[in-house]
Amino acid sequence: MLTLPERAVIAAALAFVTLSAWLGSWAITAGMEAIDPTFLAQLCARPWSAADFANAFLMWNAMMVAMMLPSAAPMIDAFATIAKRRRARRDPYVPTLVFVLGYLAVWGGFSLAGAAGHWLMANAGLVGPDMALSSGLLSGGVLVLAGLYQLTSVKQACLTHCRSPSGFILSEWREGYLGSMVMGFRHGLYCVGCCWALMLLMLVVSMMDLRWTAALAIYVAAEKLLPHGAILSKAAGVIAVALGAAFLLAGAAPLLADLFR
Questions:
Q1: 13 — pLDDT class (breaks 50, 70, 90)
Q2: Distances (CA, A) of 120 to 114, 115, 143
């Protein structure tokens, strides 16, 4: 087992990276508004440049690190514990940082996909100045999608994996630097499988508002770390479907009124 000072070092390192990601997210959003208060409105009214896409990717990536790294702490702790035991036996071991880099690489790929999606939706006129979906019908559809996914067996299987660090370490252990990177990557894939639909909710509430991002990060951590996370996941799914249905009804009402007028 890791000693208290060793755990404190890991916790401090994770806290530093997480805080840096939050500050980076704030700097990006604040910087856009500082350059020009109408920058975001202009961004949604013109085709994106390569610089616009790069900014969107940096924003997505900073938010993914800030939101997901804290909930991966138990898995990182489990990997560090095994590495310590191997080091004590003078067996080959790999620094925990390699595992973490493999994990973050997956979320980097997800961030690239998120930025690409934002770019496509902005060019199609589906995103407002707050970088959220401008259509109530689309927002309702995303909420329903996220809610239904929460109730699927795939979601629950990925969540079970994320909540069981020891099981993953025993079944997925690989030797060497490449093996440790692959382990981190595979854990990241399970986490994406668990949370990708939740991340889409940032398109509904506005990823420019870090209060919503922080609230979603707290929920993700609660789902993975609290004793009854599976029940919380299903309850949140039901709530999301209900909210999505309300959005869909509200968005469809004017269309139905025009149809029967």
A1: very high
A2: 10, 9, 20
Distance CA 72, CA 66 (A): 11
Distances (CA, A) of 83 to 12, 39, 59: 18, 48, 33
Segments forming the whole domain that contains residue 230:
4-259
Residue 80, C-beta contacts closer than 8 angstroms, at least 6 positions apart:
2, 6, 10, 96
3-state class of 12 per DSSP? Answer: helix
Q: Lowest mean pLDDT: which of 30-34, 68-72, 77-81, 83-87?
A: 30-34
Token code pair at residue 226: 């609290």
Give strand ranges (E) for the chain.
none
Mean pLDDT over each residue of the chain, to the nearest integer: 87
Of 194, 48, 51, residue with least CA distance to 118: 48
Overall number of domains in the chain = 1
Comparing C-alpha atoms, which of 147, 127, 149, 261 is closest to residue 205?
127
